[in-house]
Amino acid sequence: MNGGKGRRRLTARASAGRGAASHRSAATRRRLGRTGGEVPLDRLTTRGRLAWLNSAGSRIGTSLDLERTAQELAEFTVPAFADGAAVDILESVLRGEEGARWTGTGVPIMRAIAVSAVEELSSLEPTPVGETSVRAEAQHETLLHRYCLRQGRPVLVSRMGPADYTKVAPTASAAAKMRAAGVHSYLAVPLIARGLLLGSVDFVRGPGSPPFSSTDLALAEQLASQAAVYIDNARLYGREREHVVTLQRTLLPRATPVTPGLRVRAEYAPPTGHQGVGGDWYDVMALPGGRTALMVGDVMAHGLPAAATMGRLRAVARTLMTLDMSPERVLARLDLATRDLEDEQVATFLCAVFDPADSTFTLASAGHLPPLLVDGGGSAEFVDVPIGAPLGAGVIPYDRVRVEVPAGGHLVMYTDGLVKSRNGDVEHQLNGLRAAARDLAPGALESGGLFASAPADDTTRFDEAVLLVATSVADATTSADGPADLREWQLPQEGRAASVARGLVTDQLAVWDLTELADVFELVVSELVGNALRYGNGPGRLRLLRGERLVVEVSDTGPDLPQIQHADLGDEGGRGLQLINMLCRRWGSSRTVTGKVVWAEHDLPH
Predict the structure, then answer these.
(1) End-to-end distance of the chain based on CA atoms, in angstroms?
(2) In terms of Cα–Cα distance, which of 435, 402, 395 is closest to 419?
(3) Which of 381, 383, 413 is nearest to 399 (CA)?
(4) What is the pLDDT of residue 464?
């Protein structure tokens, strides 16, 4: 009989528990929109609770995004553990700084990051996500949330009384709504990692749920300790990402130089996610004779090491371009420099040199995606550039190709982040890029329209991207002979070449109203042509460029680059380059496929 009565009492108690659980499951179904809800923790055994706690490792911290991690924490606990949860993080932590042991008065500045609640508590008034959390601490010296943050200890109010709502809620109206919604139990746990405070998480329970117990408190402490590590990892990764992006942007050029006959627009875009930062770069460099070097590269790695390697490669490439104007020779030497780096990283690289005299690009590629040539008539085709091995692979030589860009045409250079996608192969993505470039309205290509219309748009791009668009300029300053500020002549292969060069330069300076520089440039061009006759198998072409400065250039087929010689008082020669060095701002020489060019630069009069 006694045993029967015990069984009946046990059955009745179980039935009551099932009724409460059924109410809770209905709330869960309404919130989650599914036919079956999670089993509340109050119905689980100790082993079941531990299993739930262990499952947090696979459902919280799935990414290194701090806000997403906080939201995963809130959603993981509702409705299995609580009917409502709110996560607040220190403002300093969101800026990437370390957590803190709070020693000041009041409470540290917090920001609401994540909120989750069942449908019955949807009328509550928590601090909106993204806004600074404000607590009316002046009204209550024993404010519970302040105690949690300052002492670094959890706060449990198993059964809330009338005076407890104003100690819990951020505002008086929020306290009234909590009481009206039937919230009857409150639990606050600090988020502490490595002994430093990161924030806090608040839990509440409403109608149909049992009050929080000491067992719930211990479980919440374990969960908060685990979640705090994930949040701190996300903070550290976010801070490193900011450092990488800052370093990346610092190493990229701040402005593009003046490019005769060419209009250049370059842009760098970090990935929308928290991966793929570091390694993509571009450069635009003015070369002697009005030429322009355009470079785009991609280090096959990410993070600080890739950004550092990118900076070193860009510095080496700029140095090589001042010495060697042939892109394929630049790639060969850059490959040797890449192999000497201790990081043993590999990079792709695309180099193009624009010559405004004939509106042509000379291109060479080291494993990079082909550039896109868009003419003014709406046609878009990829340039068939011989693709060499990536830099650092040790497979040389490289080949070059020369293409002509019509007036108003565009050469589009980019990195793979512009087209890379998890849902399609490279060929399909490149065809999509070509179609997007063909369909863009006039002017949209130069304004970065490909970033929005490329296959890997801003919503799906998981890798950083560089886009460089070079447009051949055709305006009133351009004639059939080329840009009005650039003149080029073929010199005769005989002794009168110096006299012919002096006459051409003098006449052109008169046209440009620069006759005050005629004496200097007559002397300079005489020395350059004389050296070409003596050491370079005769002069080739004479080029005169008026830009930010006045530049004269003479080409020849000689293999040796000129150097300033030390001339004694009794020597008859050896002073030509010394004279040029004294008269001009600077001078230099560069190798070409057929020989070399020697140039000199002079400041324009004010």
Answers:
(1) 116
(2) 435
(3) 383
(4) 84
> What are the structure tokens assigned to 192, written together?
């502490």
| H or E, element range at 303 | none
Class of domain 38-241: alpha beta
Instruction: Identify the bridge partners of residue 298 per DSSP, sorted by sequence position.
Output: 280, 348
pLDDT, tens only, 500-518: 999 999 999 999 999 999 9
Assessment of whether the complete model's pTM goes beyond 0.90: no
527 in Cβ contact with 579 (< 8 Å): yes
The amino acid occupying position 432 is G
Q: For domain 252-472, give the CATH superfamily.
A: PPM-type phosphatase domain (3.60.40.10)
At the top level of CATH, which class does the domain 485-603 belong to?
Answer: alpha beta
CA atoms within 13 A on the CB side of 325: 24
468-482 tens-digit pLDDT: 999 988 543 444 445
Using DSSP, state whether 171 is helix, strand or coil: coil
Q: Do residues 263 and 473 lie in contact, with contact meaning Cβ atoms separated by under 8 Å? A: yes
Domain limits, CATH 3.60.40.10, in the chain: 252-472
Name the H helices within 407-457.
426-439, 449-453
- Residues forming a β-bridge with 281: 297
Phi and psi at 389, nearest 5°, equal -70, 150
Render pLDDT for 257-315 as a digit per residue (tens, 0 to 9).
Answer: 878 888 899 988 877 665 657 788 999 998 877 889 999 999 988 777 888 888 889 99
Which residues of the chain are in CATH 3.30.565.10 domains? Answer: 485-603
Query: Is-cis flag, bond preceding 79, omega within 30?
Result: yes
